[in-house]
Amino acid sequence: MMKSILLPTLLASSIGLALYGSQAIANDVLPVLAETETQAVEQNDNLLIEREQINAKPVANNSLSQLLKTQPGIAINDATASVRGGDLAPEEISLANARTHQTNYMIGGVTTNNISTFGADDKAGSIGGHTSGYFFDTELLESVEVMDRNVDAEYGSFTGGIINAELRKPTDEFTAEYTFKMTDSDWNSDPTLDEDNSDLEEPIWGDGSYQDQYQKRFHNLFVGGAINENHKIGIGISVQESDIPLIYNGERQDQGQSNTNVFINHLATLGAWELSNELRFSEFTDKRFLNDTFTDETAEDSDYENSSSGIGYTLKLNREFAQGMWRNTAAFDQLKNERSADVNYFKTHFDYRTGFDMGSEGSYGNFDETQNSTKLKSAFDFNTLYTGEVRHQLSVGVEATLHSAEGTFSEDFHTFTQYSDADGSVELDSWTTTAAGDYKADSNQYALFATDTIEWNKLTVNLGLRAEHIELFDQTVIAPRISGSWDFEAERTNRLSMGASRYYSGSLLGWALTAEKRALQTNHQDCVGTGGGSDISLNPDDYTCESITQYQATDLNQADTPYSDEISLNYDLQLGNVVMNAGYLYRQQRDGLSSIYNSELGYDELHNNIESDSNIYSLRFSNANNYAFLGGKIGGYLDLGFVDAKGSGTTTSVYDDQNDLYSGSSTEWVELDGELMRRTEMDAGSYNSDFTAGLAINTSWDQYGVMWSNFVNYEGGRKLTLFQTTDSREIEGELQSVAVMSSAEMESLVTWDTKVSWTPSMANERMTLSFSVTNLLDKQVKISTSGIDDNSKFTDDYYNQGRQVWLSVGVSM
């Protein structure tokens, strides 16, 4: 009952504040104040969050995913992260309800996606990867822009949207700023468990699945300014550390993570040329160990360390000519994922010699993968042209993106299941060996794009076209981008906009790289020891096998390029100090890829069998200028969002399996809650809650140096589809395999995040003290379930993260 009363009351009071706040708390004459420093600003259909808003928002980690998680239409994969309080890595982000690898991450307008290990699991023979190639600390960012609709034809390589982060830029005045921020598990709520996943707390899960103890420390430094009238330079450094002592062999052993970011920006004016140099570096490391995951016995030699690093450089050279502006960009990024492991085997053991016992030992292998990406772009923005009363703004450009990737196994790697029979004989089942060696793949993309912005009277029409050749799929694709708007008022405070666009996937080089890695693998089936080897022998001569199969590489040209189509509608209205935006986005995802291993052919088959249809609604109220309030200023916004999606959901027991490229399914039919339907008709079961609401109320008293930021967020319970079993049904006169599923709705959630900052005048405003709390109410509800429905032995339930307290101090000069 409390929830049903709280939400309408919250929304009603928030709308009232936005609409009638001037009568309630403003002066008789509305003051003309600077734009509120804590509201996100809508510009050209895109969400732009500037540095002031980044600083004001309380977040658990300084990551893009935590910064954007409460925005309508933006969903993050935090559904299984609640028990990993010490993690530093950002969560994957979904835009416009697309799969997470279809988000294009940019730094300074340059794509920096990890396309070689994205979406992969951290498991034997595979390195877990994130779509974003760099894990930049948001304290080092100048702004973050999210483009999820009506995206200009200049940009491609996504079916979801773009997240463009701008690193801090030097100004004319010299600036030096240092910030220290920390939290400790003793200050925060413990992870919530229930009877379904209470075993995560036991020592057998030594791989870091359960992190009840941690301490996180963030150091952040930026120094920048003008060297002379023509040159400016800025340097940013961030070091994030997390100590995570985990239970190992009955005792706490030090494990941890670190994330280091460094960049150098150089801006120069060289006569008629504008020059920008940017050097960037990021490295994330994660130290882990693997306990025996079935018994209390701990295997030796099971430590390993994962690392993801990136180093890149961008050169921008622009010049103004009589006909217009010529823009040129050249960039290079090297992304490296590697694992350092003590041993090169992972064994699961079933022992029948003295009854029954089972366990596992070993590690996930010692290898690395490197991706090199070169980006070249040249565009010309013509000066305004007029044909009568019609105004034209033309732009044309070309773009080339060159990708290559290479992996290396320095030693043979083995993963197998072993049986020890009562008579002492040894049998290996599904023994896969990956031979030491290199595997590599490359793929290039070439694009032409042109746009024309036409203005006549109150009508604006944007015509765009992007033609692109994608070598990976050996296809040339055409992506039209059309949008238009009508201004009912000359001041552009009353505008209706519409658009229709197509977007094509970027390179999925990881598919080709995985296919080449397969060529190094050999599978041995049902191997029996000949008596010459020990029970952990990795020598094929010590066994006789019923079958030996060499895997074959997959040809990606058999698949089509995934794409999406959109229709958008937006209405913007400003009445006095109140700004309203109402948006609608219909997005079709088509030809999404999945991989299915064909045992008869001996290789992975690619299928374009993932699709979804999403209706995304949003409504936003904000103030154009702050109001006077108790001697200070107050402002904020109210965001409402609703998502209705259908499509290819997961048909396995693994949560959100439809986002795993390498866990495809050939299942076309499902039985959901007793109703037979095609897979593309089921609930998509995405990261999105169907209904979300976010209220920001931010106050500041400049005379005292105090700022208080508050964010209240509501998330409706996520809708999930849970696996029960696989069965056969008669469909169109034939028996077909059907995934039997059930639906479940998780609990709704209200959280309150707050942050208080004080810049005391007695310190000459050179120091800032901050205290922030996320989930102040400490409300935790179940937000996801992974496993087999109605079988708690094989089910894990996950909750949102509880209260976290952060302290920070900053100094500047």
Automatic annotation (TrEMBL):
The UniProt entry's sequence similarity note says:
Belongs to the TonB-dependent receptor family.
Q: Which UniProt keywords apply?
A: Cell outer membrane, Membrane, Receptor, Signal, Transmembrane, Transmembrane beta strand, Transport
The residue range of the signal peptide is 1-26
Organism equals Shewanella youngdeokensis
Report what the protein is called: TonB-dependent receptor plug domain-containing protein
Q: Tell me the membrane topology, using the record's own terms.
A: Multi-pass membrane protein
Region feature Disordered, mapped onto this chain: 186-206
Residue ranges, compositional bias (Acidic residues):
192-204
Where would I find the TonB-dependent receptor plug domain in this sequence? 49-159
The protein's location, in the record's own words, is: Cell outer membrane
Short name of one Pfam family? Plug
